[in-house]
Structures are given as C-alpha cells and as structure tokens.
Design brief:
Number of helices: 14
Order of helices and strands: HHHEEEEHHHEHHEHEHHEHHEH
Strand order of the largest sheet: 1-2-3-5-4-6-7-8-9
CATH topology of the largest domain: Rossmann fold
CATH superfamily of the largest domain: Alpha/Beta hydrolase fold, catalytic domain
Structural class: alpha/beta
Bound molecules: alpha-D-glucopyranuronic acid
CATH architecture of the largest domain: 3-Layer(aba) Sandwich
Strand content: 5-15%
Length: 481
C-alpha cells in the first residue's frame, strides 16, 4: 500500500504538471496564432504632430529648421526679392551618377532616367506600392445637361478600391466625366484634380462676386472652353483617394496598403497617392467608349498642380500636363531661396505630401543636399508636352515663385532636346502674359491670382498641337517613344 502510494503519486504529478501541459500547449499556441492571424488590428491613430515626430525619431532628427512665413508682413517673411536669391548649383540631368555624360536617347531611357526616378522615389515623393489593390469602377448616375450651350452627358463614378486585404479601411474614389452629347467618336478629355462642388461652394461664399472674378479672371469657365473644342472633361476628387493631412496617412489608399500601420520612410505620400488615383481614373477611361484614352491630359492648381506634375512623371499614358502654380514640391526649383521653402513642406501641415525621408533636408541636411531638383521632375515628363502656369507676382504673391517654376522648365530643356523636342526657347523669364508655347515645354504667367483660369485659352492653343479633336487623325503624344 505504501509502496503503491510512493509510485503512483509521482506518476500523477508528472502527468498533471508535465504531460497534460505538453499536450495542451501546442493547441494553445496554435489557437493564439490563429487569433493573431485572423483578428484584424484597427488602424493606428496618430495626429499629424505625432506622426511627424515619429518620422523624425526614425530619422534620428531632433529638430527641423523652421520655414519662412507666407505673410509678407511677418518678420520671418519668405524672400520675394530677386536680388536676394543666393547662387545655387543644380544637378545635371544629363550626367550619370558615375560622372559619364548622357549623349543618346537610349542612355537617357536606360540609365539616367531610372537614376533620377530612384532619387525622387526614395527621397522626395516616396515609392508607390507594387501591389496596390484593384479598383472597380461603378457608374452611379448618368445625366444629360447643358454646359454653356453645349449638350453634354455627365457620368458620376465611384471607384471602389478592393479592400479584401484590410476591410477596416474603405476607399471610394469620386470622379465625374462630362462628354459632348453629340460626339460621334471617342473624345479627348482634360481631367482636373478638383475640389468637390460642396467645398468649392463653401470657398466661393467667402468672396464677393467682384473679388472672386479678380482672383479667377473673368473668362468663361474652363469646362466650356474644353467642350467648345469638342473635348470632354473630368474631375477627380483627390481627397477621396487620400486625405490632405498627416493624420490621414493610416487611412485612405496609403493606410489601406499599409493595413492601417504608419508609413515607412520611403513609402509614398499624398502626392503620389493622388497621382495613383488619376492613373486609376485613366484605367476607367480606357474602358469607356466615349473617351479617347490616348488623349487624356491632367491639370491641377497648387498642391494639385504638384500632383498633376507627379501624375505626368509616373504615368506615361497621360498625353499632356497643365501644371498650375505648383510651387515648392512642384515645378519650382526646390533649392531656390524665393517664396516657399523645403522647410515649409517638411512641416507638420505639409510633410504628408512627401516621403518621410524628405524631412532630412530641413535638418540636418539642407536643400542643397537634395540629389535631384524640380527641373529633373519636369524632365521626367519628356518627350510629352507640359505647360507650366503661374499667376502674377502682385496678385498671387511670391509664395509659389513663378520664376522658380519657369526655371524648372528651363532646366528640363536639355533632356527634351536630347529626345528631339523643343525647349522653352529662352532662359530669360518673359514679361507677364507672354506665352512661350513653341516647344514641348511651355510657360505663361497670367495677370490674376492663384488660379489656372486665365491661362486656359493659351493652354488649349498649345494643347491643340498635340491633342486632336474628334474627326482629326490623332497622333497620341504618349506613344511616341
Ligand atoms: C500652401 C502651400 C503650398 C500649396 C498651397 C495650395 O500655400 O504652402 O505649397 O501649393 O498651399 O495648395 O494652395
């Protein structure tokens, strides 16, 4: 009896403490794994300030330089005096990183262009994901209306982004497409990165009619001018793709691809996300019989002017770009000390447009350390036509740096010439309202404010050389190389 007790007890203890847990543990571990794999963590929520700080920490940066102020009366006002612009030197778009000169179109396409793209991807705008989800376009309404005197058909569309990989984030891209009702053939389309009609109405309310006209110029709306050529127009709402703030980076298309987690340092920012949205709209146009998808242009103003330029760069299917007052981060030479500066774009209110890595150039590095500059961004559009648009220094102000954008166009000239195209024709900033539209890079400064409005007629004259209306035989600019 005693012996039995002595033998049995350790056996029981062994079973209880070792064998049972040994059998059950794998089951528990497996269950824990299963739960982790299936329970979807909610999107991280950080304010713009918190996310900006997170990026600084990742870069081991303790402080950034403060940018100048847009208000001309501020003691820290941005420089708008040409005489005070220090000298700077620009990277040569036609010299390889190994010092070799780029002398043929093949060297540009195969060697130099990829080098420049890599620098913009890693340091400036971030990389768009290779595995971005598919978009399923739905026409939610079709209506017949009249714009000016022209009967048109307007389709409202929603691009549902496939969110099977992360169902907690929904992205529905808003787009409208308007084409002449009487068109007998597919028509060219100008697409604008636009404000939603609700936001536009709210902004307009803050101005008197006279102020609104002075600011926008008083020509007919661009939509009428486009229709008068027999073309159509489209309006894409960028903020339906990606919010225009740092807080939204774990939402929208960027958040969806990152499954609600904060960005890596070379992940795409809002500008590339908006450009991605424009490319998805172009995918839809390729399926719509009313549109000649080989003749689609992109236009935008200011931050959306930057986005329009980025769209041209990354999607060669876009035939032409109308780049309005794009300023710093757009066609303006980044390192030119006039108007807005790199430090402003690296601040909490604008950094989300760019890759996290961009912050480095606002401290400890400087804009002179940038491996590329805006002239090379314009050059990446070559050989396709681009029109760089600015307002007047007096009415629009110097923040967007009209001359800096002009110089972005000048610096792209050698690449266009190498590819057999014509540049701006001069390196001297032309007087206001002088159109430089004889080559594939065009420029005009109108006399109104922060708008593309008064430059539309000139843009359309320029565009008419490349984009052919219905009935003409079209030479799609995008397929020339
Ligand atoms: C701010 C910003 C500019 C931008 C502009 C706009 O002024 O600093 O970079 O272009 O907003 O989008 O209107």
């Amino acid at each position: 009896m005693r012996l039995r007790y002595f033998v049995l007890l350790p056996v029981l203890v062994l079973i209880r403490l070792v064998l049972i847990p040994l059998v059950l543990m794998p089951l528990g571990v497996a269950r824990a794994f299963f739960q982790a794999a299936t329970a979807t963590p909610s999107p991280v929520h950080l304010t713009s300030e918190q996310d900006h700080q997170r990026v600084m920490d990742l870069l081991h940066i303790s402080a950034l330089r403060r940018g100048p102020d847009g208000d001309p009366k501020s003691p820290n006002a941005a420089n708008v005096d040409e005489a005070k612009v220090p000298k700077y030197s620009l990277p040569d778009p036609l010299v390889l990183k190994n010092g070799q000169k780029v002398t043929t179109a093949a060297m540009w396409w195969q060697q130099r262009r990829p080098e420049i793209v890599e620098d913009f991807d890693r340091e400036i705008y971030g990389r768009a994901p290779a595995n971005a989800p598919k978009v399923n376009w739905e026409v939610t309404s079709t209506s017949r209306e009249t714009v000016g005197d022209i009967p048109v058909v307007t389709k409202k569309l929603v691009g549902h982004v496939d969110n099977a990989s992360y169902p907690l984030i929904t992205v529905d891209i808003q787009l409208t497409l308007t084409t002449p009702a009487n068109a007998t053939r597919p028509v060219p389309v100008m697409m604008e990165f636009g404000l939603s009609p609700e936001i536009l109405a709210a902004i307009k309310k803050r101005f008197t009619d006279a102020q609104w006209t002075a600011f926008n110029g008083n020509g007919p709306p661009w939509q009428q001018l486009v229709l008068a050529k027999g073309w159509g127009y489209a309006i894409l709402i960028p903020t339906s793709v990606q919010a225009d703030n740092g807080e939204g980076l774990t939402q929208g298309i960027i958040g969806l691809v990152d499954k609600g987690q904060p960005r890596k340092l070379d992940d795409w920012g809002a500008l590339r996300a908006w450009a991605w949205g424009a490319s998805r709209a172009l995918d839809y146009f390729e399926t719509d019989k009313t549109v000649d998808a080989k003749q689609v242009g992109i236009e935008g103003l200011s931050r959306y002017g930057k986005a329009a330029l980025v769209t041209m760069v990354y999607d060669p299917r876009f035939a032409i770009g109308f780049i309005g007052s794009s300023g710093e981060g757009g066609a303006k030479i980044l390192r030119r000390k006039f108007g807005e500066q790199v430090e402003n774009v690296a601040s909490t209110s604008e950094y989300h447009w760019m890759a996290g890595n961009f912050l480095k150039y606002a401290g400890p590095l400087t804009p002179d350390d940038l491996p590329v500059d805006a002239h090379e961004l314009v050059a990446l559009c070559a050989p396709r036509p681009v029109f760089i648009s600015s307002g007047s220094l007096q009415v629009e102000g110097g923040w967007i740096d009209g001359k800096g954008m002009f110089l972005g166009g000048v610096g792209a000239g050698p690449v266009y010439r190498l590819l057999g195209k014509k540049d701006l024709g001069t390196a001297e900033m032309p007087p206001m309202e002088t159109a430089l539209i004889d080559g594939e890079i065009a420029f005009r400064q109108h006399s109104a404010g922060h708008t593309t409005g008064p430059n539309w007629p000139t843009f359309l004259t320029f565009a008419g050389r490349y984009i052919k209306g219905p009935g003409n035989s079209a030479v799609p600019a995008a397929s020339k190389h």
